[in-house]
Design goal:
With 228 residues, this protein is mainly alpha-helical. The chain has ten helices and four strands; from the N terminus they run H-H-H-E-E-H-E-E-H-H-H-H-H-H. It has two domains: 99 residues, no CATH class; 119 residues, no CATH class. A two-stranded antiparallel ribbon has the order 1-2. A hairpin with a 5-residue loop joins strand 1 and strand 2. It is elongated and about 65 Å long.
């Protein structure tokens, strides 16, 4: 706050109107569903969910105003994440404010590296958006089994258009593994033939890791074919 990184968000600056319109209090209530939170008291103990939502909103609207009156967003957000993540990592089993601006449970190192890995350059924007949505849906701090199941399903849907191509690269048994996981274990379909009596927290984490790895590999293989 001392650096006035939220001046544009809270008050506006010169001819630029405030980003939180019509007022910070109204914006936080209408858009973020935060009540009685303005003015912000950083020493006030509020529910974790409200605190995390506030952090995500602040990350969205932080701006650095340079000596020429220009508004810089990315560097200010990076500085904010570096600061706030030092505290988030110490809470419970650890949390992380991502570059995309939402808070997730801190994944283990292997999966953490995977979720921050960039997709190939020529990946369609719609696919990138689906992957980011799946990651947010699975790892968000308040995600339950339903959200995690939908995240796995979303990754499987990304692979569906590549199914014929994958058959030529992998084996028939691997093709069945990719799609039967979601088709037979209560992820994609809902009927009496589904297997649902399994330890979902453990297997959902493995499924998500497996599908996200497969999406990365498939997109890289597809890109390589285009370059040949």
């Amino acid at each position: 706050m001392e650096k006035h990184y939220f001046k544009l968000a809270f008050e506006g600056h010169h001819s630029e109107p405030r980003l939180m319109s019509p007022s910070p209090e109204a914006y936080l209530f209408a858009e973020a569903k935060l009540k009685n939170i303005w003015p912000i008291d950083y020493n006030y103990k509020r529910p974790k969910e409200d605190t995390f939502t506030l952090i995500e909103v602040l990350h969205k609207f932080i701006r650095r105003i340079d000596g020429f009156g220009m508004y810089e967003e990315k560097e200010a957000q990076t500085e904010f994440r570096d600061m706030i993540n030092k505290y988030l990592v110490c809470l419970n089993n650890g949390y992380l404010l991502t570059e995309s601006g939402y808070i997730i449970n801190l994944p283990e190192d292997g999966l953490g590296n995977l979720i921050t890995q960039d997709l190939p350059e020529n990946t369609e924007d719609s696919t990138t958006e689906k992957v980011e949505t799946a990651i947010k849906m699975f790892f968000r701090y308040d995600s339950g089994e339903t959200e995690k199941m939908k995240a796995i399903n979303l990754l499987a849907d990304i692979l569906e258009p590549y199914r014929d191509s994958l058959k030529n690269i992998t084996t028939e048994s691997h093709d069945k593994l990719i799609f039967q996981l979601v088709n037979k274990y209560g992820i994609r379909h809902n009927n009496f033939e589904q297997r649902t009596n399994y330890d979902k927290p453990i297997w959902y984490e493995w499924m998500f890791h497996y599908y996200l790895s497969t999406v990365h590999a498939t997109l890289k293989l597809n890109l390589a074919k285009k370059l040949i």
